[in-house]
Amino acid sequence: MHHSRSFITRLGRSARVAVHTSIRQMSSKLHNVVFVLGPPGSGKGTQCALIQKNFGFVHLSAGDLLREERQRPGSQFGELIETHIRNGTIVPVEITCKLLENAMIASGDANGFLIDGFPRNQDNLDGWEREMGAKVKLHFVLFLSCPVDVCTQRCLGRQQGRSDDNENSLKLRAKTYLEQTMPIIQHYKKLDLVRDVTSVPTSEQVYASVAEVFSKAGFTPLQN
């Protein structure tokens, strides 16, 4: 009986060691993530490009990934995405999360990932936490704050050929941002995860503040 108890104890200890080892291995594979949020025209794309270049992060845009997947021959999600876009309905967040995860896996050993313009509403947030919460380490949310009227004028003046850069569309996008995305930013503020950087100055001045945020979070600039 004593030997039996001893064997079970040893087996239990071995199992515990295996579990702890497995958890350490899983933790070491977590993707480093920074969400980048702000109103349309706040300079998210510009700052993401600079962070990607200088800190070795990979810039992922949920919208771009959906558009690319929609057009990719043989895509398992393409027809579904097309149907939702055609009907003016929202693509299920599970698909968006899967595309983001696939892009992270395909990027190999990147320092981290900048997820641009996501999560933009409560459904995005709930889906992300359900699908990806255990697979990533969210370091912080980079919030590029800028008055909506300033952003609107920027969008109207940038002449990038975007079909939604017209005044009516921009008003709708700004309304959606204020009603749906701001509550997400407030949610992360309560968790002390928001790093607020004003994006009113020049892109160079904004980037100087952004780089300081990344350095304080423990990320080291690349040696160019």
Structure at a glance:
The protein is of the alpha/beta class.
Provide structural commentary.
This protein is of the alpha/beta class and 224 residues long. The protein has helices at 2-28, 44-55, 62-71, 78-87, 93-106, 122-131, 148-158, 167-190, 203-216, and strands spanning 31-37, 57-61, 112-116, 136-145, 194-198. Strands 2-3-1-4-5 form a five-stranded parallel sheet, with helices on both faces. The chain is globular and about 40 Å long.
Chart the SSEs and their pairings:
Blueprint: H1 2-28, E1 31-37, H2 44-55, E2 57-61, H3 62-71, H4 78-87, H5 93-106, E3 112-116, H6 122-131, E4 136-145, H7 148-158, H8 167-190, E5 194-198, H9 203-216
Parallel strand pairs: 1-3, 1-4, 2-3, 4-5
Helix pairs in contact: 2-9, 3-4, 3-5, 5-6, 7-8
